[in-house]
Amino acid sequence: MPEPMAELARWIDDTYQIPVLNVRLERTKSSNLPRLNVIFEYDKDYAGLRDEFTNIKPAVEENIKETCRRLFAAEEDLTGLFIIFSAFAPVARAEANGAIPQDEIDALQQELALDELWKISRNFGATDFMLYTDKQVERFKANGIDDRLSGAYFDILKPHDEFDYFNRETFAVHLDSKETFDQNYDSSWQWYWNDH
Predict the structure, then answer these.
(1) Distances (CA, A) of 138 to 83, 104, 141, 145, 177
(2) Between the chain's N and C termini, which has fewer beta carbons within 10 Å?
(3) DSSP states of 38-55
(4) Domain spans of the chain?
(5) pLDDT tens for residues 54-100?
(6) CA-closest candidate to residue 170, choices 161, 183, 179
């Protein structure tokens, strides 16, 4: 990070004891207002800086704004500055999952050769193995087949995991059914993924 961004990141780290990966000051396209994006590694890293109603506790936000005014006053007009927090890990996971070529997904589905498997569906960092019926989902879970599917998918995902955010011990795909997809989501991927 160039200065004074690096200095701001060090200040946040020292003040709140949370490592900052990056800080970006940019202007919004719609209103041209300055927006400061403070990027941590995980969402949980900044949980203590948030309250239940806003992205950032007001006192934390004011402290960061005051430090920005001190550090950037000579270079930037910070009128209307707003601050957001974000996390890198979810973005890296989603990119790794999205980097798997569709032909590898199709090949995996053929290799698994499961008559019950309707589709492998991905959305950002999530992957759902869609069986045909809810009963098949129950049976796959009861028989440990979901672990086998998770392992098979992990094997094609891991080569795309540039930042090593996935590990076999905690990785799992989600099982669902075409039956649920059709009945509860009117066969709409948009509705389905908005709910998951």
Answers:
(1) 45, 27, 5, 10, 10
(2) C
(3) EEESSGGGGGGG--SSSS
(4) 5-92, 100-195
(5) 779 999 999 999 999 999 877 778 888 999 999 999 999 999 999 99
(6) 161
**pTM as predicted:** 0.83
Judge whether 122 and 104 are in contact, CB under 8 Å. no
Token pair for 89: 């890990």
Q: How far apart are CA 140 and CA 117, in angstroms?
A: 11
Q: Which residues pair with 83 in a beta bridge?
A: 36
User: Which tokens in the block code for residue 175?
Assistant: 């099982």
- Compute, in degrees rounded to 10, the torsion defined by CA atoms 22, 26, 29, 33: 130
**Side-chain-side CA neighbours of residue 147 (13 Å):** 5
**Position of tokens 């007009």?**
77
Contact between 181 and 187 under an 8 Å Cβ cutoff? The reply is yes
DSSP reduced 3-state for 28: coil
Mean pLDDT, rounded, for 48-59: 86
Kindly state the tokens that stand for 95: 């990119």
Q: Structure tokens of 196?
A: 């998951």
The amino acid sitting at 113 is A
For the domain covering 5-92, report its CATH number: 3.30.300
